[in-house]
Amino acid sequence: MKILVSDSLSERGVAVLEQGGFGVDVKLKLPKERLLEEIKAYDGIIVRSGTKVTADVIDSGDRLKIIGRAGTGLDNVDCEAATRRGIVVMNTPGANTITTAEHTIALLVSMSRKIPQAVVSTKAGKWEKTKFMGTELYNKTLGLVGIGQIGTYVAKLAQGLAMQVVGYDPYLAPGRARELGIQTVDLDELFRRADFISVHTPLTNETRSLINAQAIRQMKDGVMIVNCARGGIIHEHDLYEALKSKKVVAAAFDVFEEEPVNPDHPLLTLDNFICTPHIGASTEEAQESVAVSIAEQFVDYFEKGVARGAVNVPSVPPDALQQLNPYLALAERMGLFQAQLLDEGIEEVTVEYRGEVTEFSLAPLTVAVLKGLLTPILHDTVNAVNAPFIAKERGIEVKEVKWSDAGDYTSLIRLHVKAGKQTQQTAGTLYNKKEPRIVESNAYAVEVNPEGHMLLIHNVDRPGVIGTVGRILGEHAVNIAQMQCSRPQKGGSSLLILCLDQTPPLPALDNIKSESDVLSARLVDLSRVS
Fold first, then answer.
1. How far apart are CA 47 and CA 419, in angstroms?
2. What radius of gyration do the chain's Cα atoms show?
3. In 3D, which of 194, 189, 185 has the Cα closest to residue 220?
């Protein structure tokens, strides 16, 4: 097996590969044209952020079986093209947790004590002690938006500084939060209470511009904000205006929406804004850790068939994968569907298997369910390998139940989820042994193809509701592809499920929710499923 290392990798990582019996070539900064030729001779490639593994590079890799990213982000790898070719894509989530958390605290302290500004002033020959009056962290409230691996470690470090930590993470079980000494609150309360705010979420459609002018208006006067996660989570222009007005007294970024940041960016003109060039993971220890991690993952994959850190395939023996694939798709879509109907952190998940499906190894199916459940908040950091670990880390209890009888179906998977005061369930099956269908949503019998954009409306069972909803969507140019209505009994409540060609704009959703006969309306996005 031959491995191409096309970005800088520590010598120790290369040594792990060579000790595993691989032929390793280190060829850095290859031009695109040369990479297209070189890749043809290799079974695997390891990159950092420099090499772009695009679809045409993947198509040129006739022997390519695995792509490894020594780091977390996969923006430079076309995962869809790799999956289509049957190529495993791996990354090393968690390898830079400590160093990124430490950088967050470093920026927090630097911002609160105005250290960068004081350094510049002192080196210029000034001695401006009164100008650089700082703010103590002691007994202040730190609000964490996202409490994954990095957020958890930031909380631990902040508690060591005697800070009070509150956090928002709808996928963190309350019991796990208590173990961490973090008080979980909703996002609005976090904005109102926090003296300092630090974001630790992936950049998704839901988190883009999560902190904007509206959010900032809810915050304390004089709040300070840190972003070592992803550029774009904080609306940069809105933050600029808030820093100018001193509503936000200071901010510190390691990441920007566009990188490298434009030297003329308005934020760079402000004295109360400090920044670093995306170096949160740039320590010698972290760089060696990601290098060794990806090298060991390559060895495990080729020697044992174990796909640790894989983001695009479940770890299933090849001979069983073909039969299991339709069930894996169903299980993940059910989890993703159910997750978007919850308002609180998941505490308990029970996956009930009935009928012929019980003849398979069920562990990969349960992993697929967990991946779907965790995807809306974790997005690109959760995969078929680390989903069980993340669930355990977050205090989610997972159970499997098997029954030989599937009732009216050949096979049935039923998902029970306990989240705070909510207990919800979804059931699904396969039509023609290959087409996923959701056949139950709580007390409602349905028949839904779980894909694309869906709008679930609970409403009073009265004439005219469907027409009103259709009219509102039509006024906003949203086309209904499919529609289904289910009711347990006449005259009670009913569930209206609309499959839409696109996500409806927020005004359309607000108009629907304002209708007196509409009890609730919830968008479900299944377009991101694997």
1. 39
2. 25
3. 194
Neighbours of 132 (CB within 10 A): 14
Structure tokens at 303: 């020697």
Tokens encoding 326: 């339709």
For the stretch 72-117, pLDDT in tens is: 777 789 988 887 787 889 998 777 889 999 999 999 999 999 999 9
Q: Residue 228 pLDDT more than 80?
A: yes
The contacts of residue 38 (CB under 8 Å, 6+ apart) are 4, 27, 30
Are 373 and 346 a contacting pair, CB within 8 Å?
yes
* Higher per-residue pLDDT: 258 or 361: 258
Catalytic residues: 230, 259, 278
Handedness of CA 401, 407, 411, 417 (dihedral sign): negative
Distance of alpha carbon 396 from alpha carbon 173, whole angstroms: 6
Instruction: Tell me the pairing of strands 141-145 and 88-90.
Output: unpaired
DSSP state of 442: T
* H or E, element range at 105: helix 97-113
**CA distances (Å), 41 to each of 120, 151, 378, in order?**
51, 41, 35
| 526 class by beta-carbon count within 10 Å (0-12 exposed, 13-18 middle, 19+ buried) | buried
Query: CA–CA separation, 57 vs 192, rounded Å?
Result: 48
Q: Which amino acid is at 294?
A: I
Can you say whether the dihedral through the CA atoms of 466, 471, 476, 478 is positive or negative? positive
